[in-house]
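Action item from last week, closing it out:
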Amino acid sequence: MHHITKMLLGGTNVLSGVTEVLLGVTKVLLGGTNVLLGVTEVLLGGTNVLSGVTEVLLGVTKVLLGGTNVLLGVTEVLLGGTNVLSGVTEVLLGVTKVLSGVTKVLLGVTEVLLGGTNVLSGVTEVLLGVTKVLSGVTKVLLGVTEVLLGGTNVLSGVTEVLLGVTEVLSGVTKVLLGVTKVLSGVTKVLSGVTKVLLGVTEVLLGVTKVLSGVTKVLLGGTNVLSGVTKVLLGVTEVLSGVTKVLSGVTNVLSGGTNVLSGVTEVLLGVTKVLLGVTKVLLGVTKVLLGVTKVLSCVTKVLSGVT
């Protein structure tokens, strides 16, 4: 009876050990599943990290390209602004030249008109002088005629001759003054015409400068607009790059979280596997102990029967 009890206890040990082994195997399988899930999560996290790093690098590239565009745009705006200022300066210089030229033209026209007036005054003076000379010559001829006739008319004739000569001399003086006035007037006219021509030349040069300045202003304005466009595009690219960097960092952090979660899962799985293996070993030990007890009892029973 005692041996049977021992055998039953040994059988119970065997069953308990087998149960332990089965539970251990289950734990090992569950732990393996956890390890696989953890490894999958680590791989996914690693993929996310790599994707995030790639996105960060692309974002940084975009930021650098955008920054370059912004610098190029600012440079173009500054160059355009310089051209605009240079053009405006040229326009102002041109306008000054035009005004100076117009002033010269007006002064020249004034001088031509004054010269023309002098010429007319001189011609009038010459005509008056010629009239006086003719009148004087007439008087001289009349006086000479009277002298030739003789008698009481001689004194009257001499007087007439003297008066005629005086008038001729006065007329010649007037003619000379008139000619001087005409020459002075012609000189003034020529000087005025020269001034007009110089003024017209200066006006044309001024107009050319104004047109050149306007062209520079327009080109500068185009450069400024092009530069501003580049700056805006650059800023847009920088913002896009920053967004990409942030998105990449988010992916990296998310991937890191996945990796940590996966590692935790792997460690839990490994712990479960180790616990399962321990349980299997304990179960096997129990089975061996139970089998030993059963065999011992069987041996004793057989020995007692003999």
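Closing note: The two ends are 17 Å apart (CA to CA).
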